[in-house]
Amino acid sequence: MAEDLQIIIGTKEDQYKSLIPQIQGLLQGETDLIANLANITAALKEQFGWFWVGFYLVKDTELVLGPFQGPVACTRIKKGRGVCGASWAESQTLIVPDVEKFPGHIACSSLSKSEIVLPIFKINEVVAVLDVDSDRYNEFDEIDKIYLEQIVKMIEF
Ligand code: SME
């Protein structure tokens, strides 16, 4: 596949609809998990320009930082802690319009204002989460949930 991403201007849905087949192309034929996670974070960051996009991988009782795009971040998060640990513990996507109002939110950067975290499953077990942070309040909604869930389902763990 071509290594350059086609970035489009349009509604959030238009952007996801353009990006998803390109991500599919990036993953096609590549079996290395880290390579695929790395390219997904780059593609999302390039298209949407979000503040931080990255994966945390479940290792024993913690989430450990995986491939990401953005400023340096906390490396380990315990189950149930912060938005990421809560998403893992509850096995559900969490949309946080204002991170300061989320009890226990872990502030890797004070510039992060809103956040969405999606659990990623392998045979009903959470194996990782995708965390996306914005420097604007109320950035994420059901549209992001729907399309980001489609994207994480493409990943083979
Ligand atoms: N805010 C997250 C921690 C990860 S950073 O945002 C990259 C949380 O509360 O789990």
Domain unit count: 1
**In which order are the strands of the major sheet placed?**
3-2-1-6-5-4
Helix content: 25-40%
The level-1 CATH class = Alpha Beta
Q: What hetero molecules are bound to the protein chains?
A: methionine sulfoxide
CATH architecture: 2-Layer Sandwich
CA(first)-CA(last) distance = 22 Å
Which homologous superfamily in CATH is the superfamily? GAF domain
How much of the sequence is in beta strands?
25-35%
Question: Taking all residues together, what is the mean pLDDT?
Answer: 96
Count of helix runs: 4
Mind telling me the C-alpha Rg?
A: 15 Å
Give a verbal description of the structure:
- It is a single chain.
- By secondary structure, this protein is α+β, with helices and mostly antiparallel strands.
- It has a single domain, classed as GAF domain (Beta-Lactamase), CATH 3.30.450.
- It contains four helices and six strands; from the N terminus they run ααβββαβββα.
- It has a six-stranded antiparallel β-sheet with strand order 3-2-1-6-5-4, with helices on both faces.
- Helix 1 runs antiparallel to helix 2 and helix 1 packs parallel to helix 4.
- The model has no long low-confidence stretch (mean pLDDT 96).
- The structure holds methionine sulfoxide.
